[in-house]
């Protein structure tokens, strides 16, 4: 498995829109990305502007298809201007899973 974790910060007052757009990505993944093994979104309990995605893919090529696909591209088209700076992204081969 190959993983991607992203930390995104919404601009104050735009949390609901960013959340809604992330949920659309999840719906797209469910319907169109069989090689995306899982796609989780967390909204911070301490700071509702902070979202973290936890994503698992069959391989790096599946991650690249996801990142370049309609779901991810649609998110950044709709919510990119509502983010407070660039996402912090960590990718790599999965070391451990339960």
From TrEMBL:
Q: What is its EC number?
A: 1.-.-.-
What keyword terms does UniProt attach to this protein? Monooxygenase, Oxidoreductase
Residue ranges of domain ABM in the record: 2-91
The entry lists its GO molecular-function terms as:
monooxygenase activity
* UniProt key word Oxidoreductase: yes
Q: Is the keyword Transcription in the record?
A: no
- In Pfam terms, one family for this protein is ABM
What InterPro entries does the annotation carry? ABM_dom, Dimeric_a/b-barrel
Superkingdom classification of source: Bacteria
User: What name goes with this protein?
Assistant: Quinol monooxygenase
Species of provenance? Seohaeicola saemankumensis
């Amino acid at each position: 498995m190959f993983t991607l974790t992203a930390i995104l910060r919404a601009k104050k007052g735009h949390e609901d829109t960013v959340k809604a757009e992330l949920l659309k990505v999840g719906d797209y993944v469910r319907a169109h990305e069989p090689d995306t093994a899982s796609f989780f979104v967390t909204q911070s309990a301490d700071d509702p502007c902070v979202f973290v995605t936890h994503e698992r893919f069959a391989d790096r090529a599946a991650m690249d298809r996801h990142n370049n696909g309609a779901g991810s591209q649609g998110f950044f088209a709709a919510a990119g201007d509502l983010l407070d700076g660039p996402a912090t992204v960590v990718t790599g081969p999965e070391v451990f899973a339960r």
